[in-house]
Amino acid sequence: MPISGLVITLQQNESGQSALARIQSTPTFEIGKRDGARLAAVLETKTPKQDKHCWNWLNQLPGVLFVDVVFIHFDEENDADTKPNCLTHKILNKLDSSELHSPSIQTNHILASKD
Amino acid sequence: MTLQRRQFIKASAMAAAGAALAANSDTSAKAERAVDPTSKSPLPAISDVKWDKAPCRFCGTGCHVQVGVKDNKVVAIAGDRQADVNKGLLCVKGYHVGLALYGKDRLTKPLLRRNGKLVEITWEEAIDTVAKRILKSPKTFAIYGSGQWTVPEGYAAQKFIKGGLANNNIDPNARLCMASAVTGFIGSFGVDEPASCYDDLDVCDTVITWGNNPAEMHPILFSRIIDRRSRGQKVTLIDIGTRKTRTTQYADHYFEMLPQADLALTNGIAHLLIKNNTYDKSFVEKYCNFRADADESKPSLKGASITFERYKEKIAPYTPEYVSKLSGISVEKIKFLAELFADPKQKIVSLWCMGVNQHTRGTAVNNLIHTIHLLSGHFGKPGDGPQSLTGQPAACGTAREVGTLAHALPGGRLVAKPEHRAQCEKLWKLPAGRLNPKPGTHTVLMWEKFCTPKGAEKNVDTIWVQVTNPGQTLPNAHKLFLNKKKQNDRFLIVSDVYPTATTELADLILPAAMWVEKNGIYGNSERRTQQWFKMVDPPGDARDDCWMTIAVAHRLHELGHPGMKDKDGQFIFDYRDANNNPLDIWKWENYYKTNVDRLLYEEYRPFTHMKHKNVAPYDELVKARGLRWPVVETKPGKWTETRWRFTEGYDPFVQKGKGMQFYHSVSDDDRALIWFRPYTKPPEVPDKEFPFWLCTGRVVEHWHTGSMTRRIPQLQRAMPSAYIEIHPDDASSLGIANGNTVTLETPRGKLNLPAWVNGRGHPPRGSLFVPFFDESLPINELTLDAHCPISKQPDYKKCAARISLASSEAK
Ligand code: SF4
């Protein structure tokens, strides 16, 4: 269950204002102090996947200029769901190397990146 | 996690964010603020979590993190507010750095290949195997190291091979990323490493990125610029490159050039400064000499002295029109850049990294960027100067400073110089004449020899790879790495933390400790030496690389290799306690009974004085978040770092009244060199058969070959595999749609990759880009091994290629 402390830099215009409103209305974010364009916030999510989703959403939100992370807590994280997509890993771990060059993995990545 | 504990951690996270906000709330104060290393930082007080400082494991920016440890495990990471580099902030890689330790497939046992299979062996067997292999043929043994070596690791490795085996076959992977910066600095200033520092970014007016993408590769440095803008300060960003990147998105001006045209553009700026009489006459007359190669077809490190008049003649052909033709940049834009440099009121920082260094004329472009700064007097003042960036955390601190390159000795010394060898022999207590005067094999040559069939070329048959992954990073990998498969008599030893493309061909794998599983010292891009302590145990039987080197040296000593003794007959790594009792640090059980890092570092420290790169005492590093050398004792017990080198008032070695003093000047007169280096064509250009330019590089989520970051779930999910960026018009003319599998070919190999059209980066028509982090899509099987004749650094940024829709996609 990742918890991150963030400093979010907003544009100082209407777009920044609307980004602030959207962040405030998102339950995974808790808003803290504000100093000019910069905002302290905490992102709390249930899974690493949700964490990544929120992170992407925030980075792509119009009006957000930059996101800096100043703290992360991850002692309950589990990396079991991430198997490195690499030959040697698969050889040493006797995994099926046929999925290595599977176009579907790669295509999914491109599509995911375009979300 | 209990609700109460969760609330507490959330409150800590918010406190850290609020504190970072406060710490960065006054930019002008920030620019001038020195870190008070003794002040207590308010770290989140999470129960049972113990905090300590460490530099980030990844890039050469050198951010500091606070590492939270509980039950012998890293459980939290916070940006270190006391660190001047990052002031509490971290990038996406940095804040996940702790998870790099906990991939499921850590190497935990020594593995020896027997009958094609890797089998577990004991450490005793492993050390004995390495030592006996070396003993059989010490001259054909080589070490391939890294800009990720800690200072003591690199120091021990080069003392062992150069001082012990009298063999200079050692080279770090920095040859592939920084060698041209080294030769650039030496050629221009007579001594390696930048004169400037990151503080420049807080006060400059303009930042020029030369083939550089700091928004992805050095994000925290880049955020210093963006941060200033967000506060209403004007910082003009000019991006000069061959492909639009995330940095371009923030740029005020983007000047797209043809590959290799940096050589023309820099000469074009110099041409206009001279022609318009807008160069800084006073600076040039006081502090500079002119230089060019006597024979331009044979580029050399130091060239020959020329007059100003001769320089003018040489630069005369580089008119804006001619440069525009070579570069594809308009005459107006070339004039704009020249006018910018002509303005003495502007404070200009140039940033560059791999785009300039990985270049068959890498030394030349480095010299030329220094040249336009020197010619225009934009040098040596806060906010005004060239700053070369490194990709690895100790490319400077270890690979360059410790002398791990094949021609070097510690502290800027050279194996070819008798007086330098004599100094090292004295400091190492070796018999006179022990050190070998012949430079060893540089990276490309080392691997070429290793992978070449027996014969005249064979003089490297055993390589010990430490802390790096050449199986994925060597260019033209079929020739320089994969050919090893055909050479039965070669023996590859790899110490690493995870299985990699390199361990795949290894005959012996040594499981290594990483980052805060061991003591360490790094040195970042701005001359900052940074220390940390071991905080958690490595998994299984993994051990420190430095210990491995010392243990092998001791086994050789036991086996009777004469080079493992100093002139008094003592083992070359013989260290004693205060009562003169031997510490026996080659025994693993003793290794952490003493601080071996301190012993080795303090032995190394006097080496740094000759070139005025005085590093701080170990105990000062313990207190600080890194100190920028030269560090001198200004009052008893008070050690002061240097922000701007060669400038009076900042650099303690500049004599009073000199203003600016290049005290290691090539011309021996305290002057820097303004170089003429001509434009030359790239080694391989697109033609009918291979009509595209191919460029390779990195992405923000992954560090180098991804061997660590691809084990971090968040980063791996964010960028799971490599891709090929294609311009939409090229894609459409070839019937390629986003996500289609594309076959990419160069004269050296072929690879299928998914297409990314209008993706993160935007190559122009006729250009392609592929990142190299993905082991399963090894782009370096296709790249070129042509290299700079001076630095021997290969060019990964331009070669000829062709693409087509993969047959699997054909309808
Ligand atoms: S910028 Fe580099 S050193 Fe800093 S946190 Fe990111 S990866 Fe680490």
Describe what you observe in this structure:
The complex is a heterodimer of chains A (115) and B (811). With 115 residues, chain A is an alpha+beta fold. Chain A has 4 helices and 4 strands. Chain A has a 4-stranded antiparallel β-sheet. In chain A, a hairpin with a 2-residue loop joins β2 (29-35) and β3. The model of chain A is unreliable at 77-115 (pLDDT under 50). Chain B is α/β, with parallel strands linked by helices and 811 residues long. Chain B is 29% helix and 18% strand. The longest helix of chain B is centred in the first third of the chain and has 21 residues, at 3-23. Chain B has 27 helices and 31 strands. At the A-B interface, β1, β2, β3, α2 and β4 of A face α1, β3, α8, α26 and β29 of B. β4 of chain A pairs antiparallel with β3 (73-79) of chain B. The complex binds iron/sulfur cluster.
Summarize the structure.
The complex is a heterodimer of chains A (115) and B (811). Chain A has 115 residues and is an alpha+beta fold.
Which percent band covers the strand fraction of chain A? Answer: 25-35%
Spatial order of strands in the largest sheet of chain B: 5-4-19-18-17-6-7
Secondary-structure arrangement, i.e. CATH architecture of the largest domain in chain B:
3-Layer(aba) Sandwich
- Give the CA-based shape of chain B: globular
Q: Which structural class best describes the helix and strand composition of chain B?
A: alpha/beta
Characterize the largest beta sheet of chain A: strand count, sense, and whether it forms a barrel: 4 strands, antiparallel
